[in-house]
User: Fold this.
Amino acid sequence: MKTLIIHPDDPSTDFLHPIYSGLKGATVLTKDVSQKQLEKEIRRHDQILMMGHGSPSGLFNVAGVGEGYFTIGEKQVPLLRDKHCIFIWCNADKFVSRHQLKGLYTGMFISEVGESIYCGVPADQETVDASNSRFADLLGQAILQAPEDFNQIFERVKGAYGELAAVNEIASYNHQRWYFQPREGVPCLKLGKLKSSTYIH
Assistant:
C-alpha cells in the first residue's frame, strides 16, 4: 500500500503534522509541485491523505501544489475515484458528497478562533488548540495502531475525540462532523510500512 500525503505548506495547519509524521514510507507533497507531478503522484499511490484549508469545492492551493485555486478540486476527482482517501479540510463532506467519493472526511471543522466565531461557537485559543492537537494526534495514532481498515480508524477517533468533546466546545462541534463513507465491495484496508517518507517540494 503506497501512501501519498498532500498537505500544502501553511503554518496555520501545522497542527495536522501528527496525522502522518509517524507513517513510514509515505510520499509527502508540501509546496512547489507542478500539476503534472501532482497527478503523477496521485496515480502511482494507493492511499491519498489530503489536508489543509479548503471549501466545498476542494483543498486550497496555498503553496504551489498543482495549479489554480485548488490543489484538489473537480479536476482531480477522476484520479481519486478508486483510491483509499482521507479528506481533512473545512466542508470536505460537501466535496465528497457532490462527487460521490469514499473514505474518511470532515465537515466544517473549526481549527481557528475566527472560524469558531463564524460558526457561533466562540472559544479562546487554548480551547481551539486543545481540539486541534487531540484530533491530529488521535488520527495519527489510529492510522498506526489500527491499520486494518478505515472503519476501525474512524471508530477509534470518534470514540477518543468524543471524550474531549464532553469538556471542549470546539471538539464537540467537530466531533459531529467526522464522517466515514466506505467503498462497497472493498476488503479491509492494509497500510503498508515502507522504508522512509519522501518529501517532494
